[in-house]
Write a structure and sequence with these properties.
The complex is a heterodimer. Chain A is mainly β. Chain A is about 0% helix and about 55% strand. Chain A is built from no helices and 11 strands. The termini of chain A are far apart. In chain B, about 0% of the residues lie in helices and about 60% in strands. Chain B is globular and about 45 Å long. The chains are: A mainly beta, B mainly beta.
Chain lengths: ~120, ~110
């Protein structure tokens, strides 16, 4: 099946620094990717839809300047958590779909810990 | 609006059958997904129902009733490794194809 790869799988950073997470579609082109956030024992919360070559579409309540999304190519989307704070510590997961409908494939997830 | 509801937790015994329900109210309907997620891992696809009825895949089956806004995931011959979170989700293809998840059902399988 289609593969989505995410990097890094774990990152620890100091408060105030920025962290970039990469999401790649390995064997298909993804014009659209999705970024989710998940707190412990909670469900996946959609943060934004990443659109190749254009601005991301953010869900209500998600700070655009805090969570910068760039989708510069058909196989790569990046999420940058700017000026990270401890409350940004979470599990971030990206996903993409082959074609317009059907199954959504997920990356392995990135666990961010902000000290 | 979008509203997807599932029970938060369920417990079942190894070898038994368990049914995890999901009710939804969405603006437009494009099918319903079920995913399984083990702690600390990404979700994995289980099923996608677009039409009414039961779809069986080995020990897992998924049912959909569009008129009732209702779906369930049926797990048979439960194994310890089935302990996980089960998430139902609705796609919105008119909004870039995003997938909105219910809160997930944490299933614990006991010996």
């Amino acid at each position: 099946g289609a593969v989505v790869s995410q990097h890094p799988s774990r990152v620890i950073c100091k408060s105030g620094t920025s962290v970039k997470i990469e999401c790649r579609s390995l064997d298909f082109q993804a014009t659209t990717m999705f970024w989710y956030r998940q707190f412990p024992k909670k469900s996946l919360m959609l943060m934004a839809t990443s659109n190749e070559g254009s601005k991301a579409t953010y869900e209500q309540g998600v700070e655009k300047d805090k969570f910068l999304i760039n989708h510069a190519s058909l196989t790569l989307s990046t999420l940058t958590v700017t000026s990270a704070h401890p409350e940004d510590s979470s599990f971030y997961i990206c996903s993409a779909r082959v074609g317009g409908t059907g199954e959504l494939f997920f990356g392995e997830g990135s666990r961010l810990t902000v000290l | 609006g979008q509203n997807i509801d599932q029970p938060t937790e369920m417990t079942a015994t190894e070898g038994a059958i368990v049914q995890i329900n999901c009710t939804y109210q969405t603006s437009g309907f494009n099918g319903l997904f079920w995913y399984q997620q083990h702690a600390g891992e990404a979700p994995t696809f289980l099923s996608y129902n677009v039409l009414d009825g039961l779809e069986e895949k080995g020990r897992f089956s998924s049912f959909l009733s569009r008129s009732k806004g209702y779906s369930y995931l049926l797990l048979k011959e439960l194994q310890m490794k089935d302990s996980a979170s089960y998430l139902c989700a609705a796609p919105f293809y008119n909004q870039g194809g995003k997938l909105i998840f219910g809160q997930g059902t944490e299933l614990s399988v006991k010996p």
